[in-house]
Amino acid sequence: MKVVSIVGARPQLVKLAPLAGAFAGTEHRHVIVHTGQHYDADLSDVFFTGLGIPTPDVHLGIGSGSHGAQTGHALAALDPVLAAERPDWVLVYGDTNSTLAGALSAVKQHLRVAHLEAGLRSFNRRMPEEHNRILTDHAADLLLAPTEEAMRHLATEGLASRSVLVGDVMVDVCLTVRDTVLAGGQPAPALPAGIDPTEPYLVATLHRAENTDDPERLAALVDALAALPVPVALLAHPRLTARAEEYGVKLDQGALRVGRPLPYAGMVAAVLGSVGVVTDSGGLQKEAYLLGRLCTTLRPQTEWPETLSGDWNRLVPDPHLLGTATLAATATRPTPTTARGEPFGDGRAAHRVVRVLADALA
Ligand code: UD1
């Protein structure tokens, strides 16, 4: 079996890592195509080196742009690559513009498409990720769902016969890296200057377009974070840095200590060392849950509602409207003691994906 994985953005590289590992132990051929949607070393290269992912076989170098331009450039660049490779499966990951471009290029060439992390829904049709995941699910031949909830969404949309519950591959990578970090096998994470790892601190990220691209909302969210009662390690995505600069919003204020995005193991170590996470990232909500740190999510909804159980994660859509004390109390609430279960699977999802792809061909 020959499988082409199409990736392009940071969260896809994290999901690619366990897949690349699972393919490596088989006779199957695995070809990695990087669209180049993310190109900064912090968002791309460090994930290949840090997670031991083979260098991409093909790099398309598409870079940034409007949704149409970015998706269109990736689509045009993928056509000849997939035409030359003619794989048994094209595997696309998550919900970025690279995911949609990969699914479209493949389906138009009558190549089988499998969508990893299928069935997630926020029901917020203003999110670019929601467009990408719905369109990709409906284009794909095989829907690899991470959770029971995702399976239910796919069934509601008439896609049950193409759906398989495999579990979440992010559990595979998160728990493996956690064990390495806890065994002392990783250098200390490069936390922002001013964060003392021996004292309580929060980890924060903010990168969703709905939070960063409206100047007033961005300024209000930054003010709310700056007013938190413990130091906040703000690991700034380039989108946040770019918008803050454009709108004249000062990130380095109050409790905020600004640093660069961390490599995967650094992020796991930073979360393990923290008293909690404040974020709008889907991946980080889940990582906090898996690592047993409380999470506060700066969004009105989550694609991972399982993390809300037992109060491990709490949604705070508009912290600035509630007054600074509310976010402070939520973000530093006591760590829950409720058992977390395994709603995202057992950490062997990647091997299951390889088997499901091979079985579907047979
Ligand atoms: C993309 C995904 C989002 C995912 C996120 C993870 C889409 C629609 N969104 O958002 O779902 O959660 O990746 O990070 O695909 N930039 C750089 N260097 C880079 C990449 C981006 O400076 O290497 C800056 C540029 O200013 C760019 C902006 O970040 O315009 C946004 O990048 P883009 O690739 O459009 O989307 P993300 O916000 O990263």
Unreliable residue runs = none
Task: Report the sheet-strand fraction.
Answer: 5-15%
State the domain count: 2
Question: Structural class, from secondary structure content?
Answer: alpha/beta
**Class of the largest domain, according to the CATH hierarchy?**
Alpha Beta
Bound molecules: uridine-diphosphate-N-acetylglucosamine
| N-to-C order of helices and strands | EHEHEHEHEHEHEHEHHEHEHEHEEHHH
Helicity level = 40-55%
Largest sheet: number of strands, sense, barrel closure:
7 strands, parallel
Q: Please give the count of helices.
A: 15
Overall residue-averaged pLDDT value: 97
Q: Indicate the CATH topology of the largest domain.
A: Rossmann fold
Radius of gyration: 20 Å
Largest beta sheet: what is the strand line-up? 3-2-1-4-5-6-7
CATH homology superfamily name of the largest domain: Glycogen Phosphorylase B
Offer a few descriptive terms:
15 helices; Rossmann fold; alpha/beta; 362 residues; seven-stranded parallel sheet; globular; six-stranded parallel sheet; binds uridine-diphosphate-N-acetylglucosamine; 2 domains
Characterization of this structure:
This protein has 2 domains: 2-168 and 345-361, Rossmann fold; 179-331, Rossmann fold (3-Layer(aba) Sandwich). The chain is built from 15 helices and 13 strands. Helices cover 43% and strands 14% of the residues. Helix 1 crosses helix 15 (349-361) and helix 7 crosses helix 12. The chain is α/β, with parallel strands linked by helices and 362 residues long. The strands form 2 sheets. The chain has a 7-stranded parallel β-sheet, sandwiched between helices. Strands 10-9-8-11-12-13 form a 6-stranded parallel β-sheet, with helices on both faces. It binds uridine-diphosphate-N-acetylglucosamine. Uridine-diphosphate-N-acetylglucosamine (UD1) binds next to helix 1, helix 5 and helix 10.
